[in-house]
């Protein structure tokens, strides 16, 4: 259940109660695709860096170790030893990203494994069954994510099919939650808004999925090729049609400034591989901007990566040592970098929530524009 605590313009401060704990929003979900954060962080590290929600991938876990294996091990929470909320995405985005290997039909999608090429079928019912086996807190509906730009008729047809698939997801998850042997009988379902960059298709699609009275609503199909301005325009278009008493999730977004700007436009939930992926290549987010730790100018720099950061990396190691680890291809470099970037993102959300609590979000937003996205 979502409780709206306060509003500041469109920006929302709330909390979302789940069977695995209460989520303070706005929130960034830390992406652990295969039930693990890339960069060698375990679930104890996640707690240390302030992670509220972990996100795992239905498609990847279905392939290995197999969702039935995870079910037999007691579900994803027990499997990875994490007692806070988990959101699983539906596999729809993987279908999108595997475009050369897929065949989309009304019943679902036929595609080939990226691992060994074996044939896979996934439709709404299959996605729900896999996510039920995983026993995540929140299951995402199976949808079709289209590329941007996209022909208008294709965007319309895809949005229409996504609604039909969503109805099947809702029915199947209700059935699964009623079974005696289901691990998480309180699994929630979020629907996903699609429609490419066509405002009228997006709005009508949002109205249709809101009518199904789900636990939450996501805006999907953005950050896949369109401009930042288009992304913000779509959020502004659909936000008035999203229920105030349900959480709002912008999928796969994004940079720190993207997140602040989306909170400003009424979004509650975020996820993105960017902080961990960039970290593994030496790109570090800081309170002063974006830093490339491989740069030669840090060879004798005894300062922490971010003097204003309280993470394990910044409390204990210098830029010089950090740079050395990357230049020497030491595994520790990736671990320390991912710890910092994910701490930075989780702390960013804590700062946003504090600014909302204190009625200072407008000032906070202005103080970050032009700072967090500049390259040092």
From TrEMBL:
The record's note on quaternary structure and interaction partners says: Homodimer. Within each dimer, one monomer is responsible for RNA recognition and catalysis, while the other monomer binds to the replacement base PreQ1.
Entry cofactor note text? Binds 1 zinc ion per subunit.
Q: What does this gene product do?
A: Catalyzes the base-exchange of a guanine (G) residue with the queuine precursor 7-aminomethyl-7-deazaguanine (PreQ1) at position 34 (anticodon wobble position) in tRNAs with GU(N) anticodons (tRNA-Asp, -Asn, -His and -Tyr). Catalysis occurs through a double-displacement mechanism. The nucleophile active site attacks the C1' of nucleotide 34 to detach the guanine base from the RNA, forming a covalent enzyme-RNA intermediate. The proton acceptor active site deprotonates the incoming PreQ1, allowing a nucleophilic attack on the C1' of the ribose to form the product.
Record-listed substrate binding positions: 89-93, 143, 194, 221
Q: For this protein, what is any one GO molecular function term?
A: metal ion binding
Q: Name one GO cellular component term.
A: cytosol
Annotated region RNA binding: the residues are 252-258
Q: Which organism is it from?
A: Monoglobus pectinilyticus
Instruction: Summarize where Zn(2+) binds, as residue positions.
Output: 309, 311, 314, 340
According to UniProt, the reaction catalysed is: 7-aminomethyl-7-carbaguanine + guanosine(34) in tRNA = 7-aminomethyl-7-carbaguanosine(34) in tRNA + guanine
List residues of the tRNA-guanine(15) transglycosylase-like domain: 10-368
Pathway it acts in? tRNA modification; tRNA-queuosine biosynthesis
- The gene name reads tgt
Please provide the Gene Ontology terms (biological process) for this protein. tRNA queuosine(34) biosynthetic process
List the PANTHER family hit by this protein, alphabetically. Answer: QUEUINE TRNA-RIBOSYLTRANSFERASE (PTHR46499)
Q: What EC number(s) is this enzyme filed under?
A: 2.4.2.29
**What is this protein's record name?**
Queuine tRNA-ribosyltransferase
For this protein, the record's Gene3D superfamilies field holds: Queuine tRNA-ribosyltransferase-like (3.20.20.105)
Which superkingdom does the taxonomy of this entry point to?
Answer: Bacteria
A Pfam match is TGT
């Amino acid at each position: 259940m979502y409780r709206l605590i306060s509003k500041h313009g469109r920006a929302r401060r709330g909390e979302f109660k789940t069977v695995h704990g209460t989520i303070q929003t706005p929130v960034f979900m830390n992406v652990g695709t295969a039930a693990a954060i890339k960069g060698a962080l375990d679930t104890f590290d996640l707690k240390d860096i302030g992670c509220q929600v972990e996100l795992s991938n239905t498609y990847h876990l279905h392939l290995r170790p197999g969702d039935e294996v995870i079910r037999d091990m007691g579900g994803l929470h027990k499997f990875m030893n994490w007692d806070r909320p988990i959101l699983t995405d539906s596999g729809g985005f993987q279908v999108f990203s595997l475009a050369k290997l897929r065949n989309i039909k009304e019943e679902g999608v036929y595609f080939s494994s990226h691992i060994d090429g074996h044939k896979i079928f996934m439709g709404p019912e299959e996605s729900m069954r896999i996510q039920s086996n995983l026993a995540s807190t929140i299951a995402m509906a199976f949808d079709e994510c289209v590329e941007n730009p996209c022909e208008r008729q294709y965007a319309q047809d895809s949005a229409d099919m996504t609604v039909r698939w969503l109805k099947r997801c809702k029915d199947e998850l209700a059935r699964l939650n009623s079974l005696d042997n289901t691990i998480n009988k309180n699994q929630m379902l979020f629907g996903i808004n699609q429609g490419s960059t066509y405002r009228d298709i997006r709005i009508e699609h949002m109205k249709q999925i809101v009518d199904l009275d789900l636990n939450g609503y996501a805006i999907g199909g953005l950050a896949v090729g369109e401009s930042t301005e288009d992304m913000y325009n779509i959020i502004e278009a659909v936000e008035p049609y999203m229920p105030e008493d349900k959480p709002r999730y912008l999928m796969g977004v994004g940079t720190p400034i993207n997140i602040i700007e989306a909170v400003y436009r009424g979004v509650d939930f975020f996820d993105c591989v960017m902080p961990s992926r960039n970290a593994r290549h030496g790109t570090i987010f800081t309170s002063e901007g974006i830093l490339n730790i491989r740069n030669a100018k840090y060879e004798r720099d005894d300062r922490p990566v971010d003097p204003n950061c309280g993470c394990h990396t910044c409390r204990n190691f210098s830029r010089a040592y950090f740079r050395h680890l990357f230049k020497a291809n030491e595994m520790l470099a990736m671990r320390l970098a991912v710890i910092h970037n994910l701490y930075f993102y989780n702390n960013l959300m804590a700062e946003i929530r504090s600014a909302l609590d204190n009625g200072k979000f407008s000032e906070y937003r202005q103080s970050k524009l032009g700072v967090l996205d500049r390259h040092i």
